C-alpha cells in the first residue's frame, strides 16, 4: 500500500471546524437551535482518527502490496452451544475455525501497535498517535482478546497495569479533561495534525471520551481488581464539562482559546449518551429530544437528524458504526431496534437493486482524502460518501470490514449478513491485521488501510458471538432472542 503524508488535509479539516462554522440565528423554538449552548453543531464523530490515518514516511516501512489471507472455505455458522461467561469462572471460546482464524488475524494489529512504555495502542498501523475514541476501541479489543484466549492472563495484567500507570500520570490541560490527542510513545499532548500541543489547546471530544469511558466501565466491571484504580483516575477528570443544557458538550480551538460546542448527530449522539450514563452522567436532551425527521431511501423509512451541513455547518451522517457498537457493547433497546432493522434492510435493498454489496461506515482510506463517512443518507442525499467538510467522493464508496463482521455477529440468521461476513472474512494482511475493506469499484481493489477500530471491533464482534450473543457489558440485556430475522 502506498502511504502518503496528509498533514495539509489535516490542517484543512481543523481549520474548517474552527473557522468555517458560523453561529446560527435562533428564529426556531427547537431546543437544539436555541439552547444556551453556542449553536455550532459539530458532526459526529469529528475527531476520532479521521484527520490522521497514516504515518509520515520516515516511520513507515517501504510500501508493500498487502497479502490477503486465504482462509478455509468452511461455512460460517452460529455457535451450536453458546456459552454465557462469568468474569470469575470460565471464559468464552470460539468454536468455529473461521472465527478462530479471524480473531488471530485481528489480534496481529495489537501485537504490532501496542506500546510497552505507555500501554497505549496506535490509532493506525505504525502511527504513534491516538485519540480517546481509539483507546476505547483498544480497551475493548484487549478485553475481547483476553476473554477469547488470545492474550494470556499475565500479559493481560501487564498491559492493564501499564495503561493504568499512564492514566494515573496523564498530562491534562487546564480544562481538567484529557486532550483530544496524545502520543502513544511519550504520552505528550498532541494536536489533530500530530504536532506538539503542550498547553492542550486542542480541546476535548465528548464522543471520544464517552467511548473511552465505556471501555473503562467494561474493565472495572469485568475485572473488579482494577475498579478502585479506574475510579480514582476518572475522579481527576472534570467530567461535568461533557454535558451542557442536557446536550453532549465538546470544545474546539477558537481565537486563541476554546469554544464549547454541542457535539453529536443521531446515532453517535445516543450511543455516547448511553455510554456516559454508565458513569451517572446524563445528557437528557441527547437521549430524549434529538431533532429527527423521517426520510425514505429505496422504499425504506429511516430517521435522520435535522441538523445537517446547510443549517448547522455539520453533516448528519447516518451510518452503521454507532448502531453496531451500541448493539455489541450495550444491547439495543426497543426504541432503537426499528431504526437498526431498517438500516440493514436498506443496505440489502441497494444490493438487490444494483448488485453492489453494501456495508457502509465511517472508515479510514488508503488514499486521499484518507477518511470518509459512507452513509445511507447525509445532507439531503442518499448513499453519500463525504469527508469532514462535506465534499463527496462517490468513486471511493467501500464495503466496510468491521461493519460486515458486526452485522453477522448481531444478526447471524439473516442471509444478507452471512453474505457480508463471507465477503469480509479474507480481507486481512498476514502481518498487520484486517484491512478496512474493499472499494465498491472493483478496479480499485482493497482498501488497504489498517487501523485499531477495524481490528478491535472485529474482536468485539467475535466475543459477542462467543458470549452467546450477549453484549459486552456485564448484566446487559441480551438482544439475541429478540428480533431475529
**Structural class per helix/strand content?**
alpha+beta
Number of strands: 17
What is the beta-strand fraction? Answer: 5-15%
Average the pLDDT over all residues and give the rounded result.
84
Main beta sheet, described? 4 strands, mixed
Radius of gyration: 21 Å
Q: Roughly how many Å apart are the termini?
A: 38 Å
**Which regions contain 5 or more consecutive residues with pLDDT less than 50?**
1-89, 478-485
Q: Helical residue percent?
A: 25-40%
Q: Quaternary state, please?
A: single chain
Number of helices: 15
Commentary on this structure:
The protein is of the alpha+beta class and 485 residues long. The chain is built from 15 helices and 17 strands. The strands form six sheets. It has a four-stranded mixed beta sheet with strand order 1-7-6-5. The protein is globular. Mean pLDDT is 84; it is low at 1-89 and 478-485.
Overview features:
single chain, 485 residues, globular, disordered N terminus, alpha+beta, three-stranded antiparallel beta sheet, 17 strands, 15 helices, 36% helix, disordered C terminus, four-stranded mixed beta sheet, 14% strand
